[in-house]
Amino acid sequence: MENQVIELRDVLKKRRTKNIGPLSLAIPEGYVVALVGPNGSGKSTVLNMLIQAVLPDEGDIVWFGETYAEGLPLHIRKQIGFVPEQISMEERYLTADDAAAFRSQWYDTWDGYYFDELLSKFGVPRGVKLVKMSKGERRKYEIAAALAPRPKLLLLDEPSSGLDPFAWKLMISQLRECLKGGETTILLSTHIVDEVRRLADYIVLMHYGKVLGMVEKDSLLDNWKECWVTGDAELVQELPGVVSWKPEAAGALSFVTTACVEVERILQSAGIPILKTRGLELDEVLSLWIEGHTPAENGKMERRE
Amino acid sequence: MRIPIQINENSAEPLYHQIETQLRSLIISGQIEEGTLLPSIREFAGGLNCSVITVRRVYQDLENEGLLRTRQGTGTFVAGVGEQARAQFKHDAVFKALEAAVDTAQSVHCSEEELRSMFFKIVEKKYGGKGGEIGGESSD
Q1: Does the domain at residues A220-299 carry the CATH identifier 3.30.70?
Q2: Which CATH superfamily is domain A4-217 in?
Q3: Quick one: closest CA in A to B51, which residue?
Q4: In 10 A of CB A196, how many CB atoms?
Q5: Nearest neighbour of B10 by CB, restricted to A201, A277, A303
Q6: Helix, strand, or coil here: A36?
Q7: 8 A C-beta contact, residue B54 and residue B61
Q8: pTM (predicted TM-score)
Q9: What's the ipTM?
Q10: What is the pLDDT of residues A155-200, one digit of tens each?
């Protein structure tokens, strides 16, 4: 079994207008898990609960195998790097270097050379107070500061918001760099489809405070496709996971399925050629998923034969 | 080192299968030599924008087939491919392509006669009419 870095067990946070949860979720070590979902679905609340910036009303959160109801001890907290969505106020009158000096007191694994290198690569201005920086510059500082201690767990709340495309690419490559050793786990919330495509191993979809599922990204993309075949309505009814279908020219019809791997197997054994397939874009997949079409069973867990 | 693998997102074929098929043929055809160190799973996945789960599955499958071997702490290497396996692969690849061509002929109702005549015409053209005997390159 893989180690779970984080586990949420029936975690519930009561908000004035809505509840977040109950949530159950396990984040395996060494993977990138993308937290996606519409605004207000509870992604930031989840991330904030993972550093105890928000405390759950019910349920347990497990960090590296243990629960810490009395507060996260320093030896756990310093293994976590966090880029919050709301930028903290404490550091705003500090320059990047002064803020880094403060943070490095807490993280004994703080790598000053690495932090310097990141700041230069990102082009973050030195000697300027954080409050005077542009949104993107401030974001770059936050990312550099989260990466500098080389934490085991990175929690990134919409890390790319405000970044220009060059800085975005640099962030992607730096995150990949962190993952090389296989010991870093990343949980990031994002609205950027391309970010999920490039980074994620698993996708967790949240909607109205609930987790709709955790699915292997490639299995999702392998299974959610539009296919064209020659045939009639009867054929479509025989096929699994069909979301919708419509007639096309020349006696063909097209349909969208959430179980393309299975569909292909069935059609192949029936000798019916697939004329054309199109992989759905991730945003199409997510909106169908939110509408209530669930991913194929074989996509839910890691496939082990 | 990057491995030349092309993913088609619009194919009905699952990702791991596309990657596995292409990597297998690169190894068996000898385009990636024995002893070559493959990229780490995370690196390979990053280059293809796919998940590490997919790449791990490909590496495991090919390791089970004896085409790859993993040394703890060093990485995954290309294992030796026997002459027999290479010959088999060559045979299978051509056989499969011919079968697909025959399928195409059948789908447009081409007769057996027509198909045979077309086949021999192509062989004639490509091999310069040296007859059925197809020798390997003499300069080896």
Answers
A1: yes
A2: P-loop containing nucleotide triphosphate hydrolases (3.40.50.300)
A3: A201
A4: 22
A5: A277
A6: strand
A7: no
A8: 0.87
A9: 0.84
A10: 999 999 999 999 999 999 999 999 988 889 999 999 999 999 999 9
